[in-house]
Recover the amino acids of this structure.
């Protein structure tokens, strides 16, 4: 019981610190977390239906999702470094997590595409307009970030 309360307290403190630090990025990070879980769940379902379920592939998927979060963290650090450097030279421009936001949105779109691919493998009919809309979003983000 004591360990469980300690874990809950640490988890709540970590989430509170993330919310305070991330600010603008909190909503995209929450969306990213949800779509990562959905992608993982639909990936497991697709693998199971194709009789390709593998714990090794599953662990690889989890590691990949953790790496996504690390990528967002790198973007947040880059934003912080640019903002700090600009302040040092007397330029007070609020970047508002530009790189962290772009990375988060890009990952969300890729996760949505992966979810649709997994649903397709499950035999669920996918509306063509939805696939095209998400691909256009990804292309738009790619073009604006080059």
């Amino acid at each position: 019981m004591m360990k469980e309360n300690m874990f809950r307290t640490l988890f709540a403190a970590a989430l509170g610190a993330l919310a305070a630090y991330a600010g603008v990025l909190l909503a995209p990070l929450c969306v990213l977390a949800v779509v990562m879980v959905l992608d993982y769940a639909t990936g497991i379902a697709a693998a199971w239906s194709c009789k390709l379920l593998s714990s090794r592939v599953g662990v690889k998927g989890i590691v990949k999702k953790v790496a996504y979060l690390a990528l967002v963290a790198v973007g947040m650090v880059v934003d912080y470094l640019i903002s700090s450097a600009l302040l040092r030279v007397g330029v007070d421009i609020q970047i508002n997590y530009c790189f962290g936001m772009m990375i988060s949105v890009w990952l969300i779109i890729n996760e949505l595409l992966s979810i649709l691919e997994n649903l397709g493998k499950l035999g669920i009919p996918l509306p063509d307009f939805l696939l095209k809309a998400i691909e256009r979003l990804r292309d738009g983000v790619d073009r604006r970030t080059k």
